[in-house]
Fold this sequence. Notes:
The chain is an alpha/beta fold. It has a domain at 56-185: 3-Layer(aba) Sandwich (Rossmann fold). It is built from 6 helices and 6 strands, in the order βαβαβαβαβααβ. A 6-stranded parallel sheet has the order 3-2-1-4-5-6, sandwiched between helices. β2, α2 and β3 (50-54) form a beta-alpha-beta unit. The two termini are 26 Å apart. 38% of the residues are buried. The structure holds NADP nicotinamide-adenine-dinucleotide phosphate. The site of NADP nicotinamide-adenine-dinucleotide phosphate has 24 residues, from α1 and α4. NADP nicotinamide-adenine-dinucleotide phosphate is lined by residues 5-6, 8-12, 31-32, 55-58, 83-86, 108, 112, 135, 137, 187, 189-190.
Amino acid sequence: xxxxxxxxxxxxxxxxxxxxxxxxxxxxxxxxxxxxxxxxxxxxxxxxxxxxxxxxxxxxxxxxxxxxxxxxxxxxxxxxxxxxxxxxxxxxxxxxxxxxxxxxxxxxxxxxxxxxxxxxxxxxxxxxxxxxxxxxxxxxxxxxxxxxxxxxxxxxxxxxxxxxxxxxxxxxxxxxxxxxxxxxxxxxxxxxx
Length: 193
Ligand SMILES: NC(=O)c1ccc[n+]([C@@H]2O[C@H](COP(=O)([O-])OP(=O)(O)OC[C@H]3O[C@@H](n4cnc5c(N)ncnc54)[C@H](OP(=O)(O)O)[C@@H]3O)[C@@H](O)[C@H]2O)c1
């Protein structure tokens, strides 16, 4: 049984559909409930086993309610996919960025993902196996950012890059500090068809 954040559209939706097609029960963690209802209906109409879960990862009460719903229904969680994220301002040089832009991007991409993961740990531990899959980005790689041969050394979206670097650190930290598997999916660019 899987919970995916930000699954009402984009990659999260595709991840939900793919896992459900392989027999997983999937909670569609939705930030936008109207889109979430549409997404759930589309998948249920295809005979897939999915349910809607309101999930704003910047709202601790909302996270706690979502985890309680999963606990009440199943008592455990096999896989948490931390997919929710925001791009932040584009072409944002560090000299032009503002603290507010950084805080806003970090609130979702880092603090929100950490809060969600932290809250899900007890349920993941109750599963026979527990996996945390965190969608980060090549844009968060310090190795690529400092490699002149890499295209990522030329891209500057400072708030997004910094938030994904922090997320990489979080993913590694969880992999060292829990009985669960913590994996990082470092994507370059994905075109959805
Ligand atoms: N697409 C790429 O090329 C690419 C490359 C590398 C990494 N990634 C990463 O992959 C993930 C998905 O990307 P995507 O392209 O599918 O993005 P997307 O289409 O913008 O989807 C992101 C999802 O996260 C949701 N979200 C935003 N704020 C949230 C919050 N506070 N709580 C819960 N959900 C929230 C969005 O909801 P709303 O629709 O309501 O805003 C949306 O459903 C992101 O973490 C992104 O950084 C993407």
